[in-house]
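Folding follows sequence. Below is one example:
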Amino acid sequence: MIFNLLDRIGNWNPQLFREIKGRLKIGNIAIASALSLCGQLLLFMYFSAQIPVAPPRGEYTYPIYRTFCTFDAPNSYETKCIRDALGNFAINWPQWWSQIFMWLSILSILALLVAGTYLLVSDLDKEERRGTLNFIRLSPQSAKTIFIGKILGVPILLYLAAIMAVPLHLYSGLAAQIPLNGIFCFYIAVLASCALFYSAAMLFGLTTSWLGGFQPWLASGMAFVMCWISAFGLSMIYNENIAIGHALSLLVCGTGTYWLWQGWQRRFPNPSATVLSKRQSYLVVICCQVIMLGSSVQVSLSNYPRNQACLLLFNLLMFLALIAALTSDRQSLYDWARYRKQIVPSSQKFWRRYPLLDLIGSEKSPAIVAIAINLFISVIIFIPFILLQGIETKGGIICCLNLILIYASIAQLFLLTKNRNREIWAAGTIGSSILLPYLILSMLSIDPGKAPFLWLFSTFASAWYPSYMTVSGNTILFSILSQWTVLVLLNLKLRSQLKLAGKSASKALLKN
């Protein structure tokens, strides 16, 4: 029966069969099962040790306060221990089981998301170093088949360990008087989160092979940070209305998984292609900004400053990812600069006459114009939010938009160079541009009130710090003009590099 099942899996998805065959061995299964059972046993024993034991009668006459004791009064918030008819402490068993349920949930989520991300990225890194990834590309399997096979097969031992924890988790939830439909909603949310994180891990592993052995560690660290950020962001929504929060989390996971899947289908067959086309990026930004706008509406006005900071943080992360997804590599830019007119069909004279349209929709053209359009889309969607701000915050938001365009220009310039590690240089320079100004100004105790121009000109934090200080209109205008000057200079340099690349090799030789 097992062999028939494996044959069916092999016929349906050869990549999944390959992963199962290589990982589901007796030793691996025993280790995964033992770790899961031992972890559950240790957790159960830890909380068993927290159960308070009543001292003999007469030894202690003063009140005893312990966790998991039954409340002395229905409306009391003090865990004052009271005795039952036999002289033992009356234990609040639903609270005790709820702690087991909560910690088992947290540990299971971290294990699935963080460890699963590490396994997937590490597997792609090994395939890349061994050269088997190119062999898989040449196989008749589709990118979709390989994608599903990897996600279902690589973390299969994690799935086994998680399944073995389901009985205790389900029983503890029911014993804690949590509704069964609530527990099932949690399982659905975990599955959706796994789909999102694993899809991101697959695309990250495919596009960052230049990181080498550091790649899986960075991916798992980012997964851990994103778990914390997601929990922080969703907690504000769940506190307002739990049903809307759950639906929104599923919407985020579904939308993100879909677009990550699209990126994998573009990039896997052709490693030189961008993760997203420019037309796809416009739809991605619309989806993300509508979801973020809906999230912000659910947050109460008492959380407004924190809500604003979260919106700006998520937008920064989204546009950094968009820069990485749209920026063309050196060879693609050279091909576009040299053969753009030959690539465009003669019937499409409109595109030849207006190169700006080529920058908007072409696959290999520079990404600056597309990033600018995506920023404009974001501004249009968030117009109600922006109009509510003061002049200082509006100026700070404009400065942030300028900084994102500067980051995009820096990335495109670095990827056009002949440097062997140009991806590392681009990522390092952009990361330094984001973090160093803020750190330097903070270390020197130069707050926004003392030097508003420096904060507006160089830091992404300028969008919310001006709301706590008074900034003159001249300072805001000067900061914006200074950023535009830097942006123009960077793009003039990029234009000259593209012009040089557009010349044929023979012309360059004759000129020298």
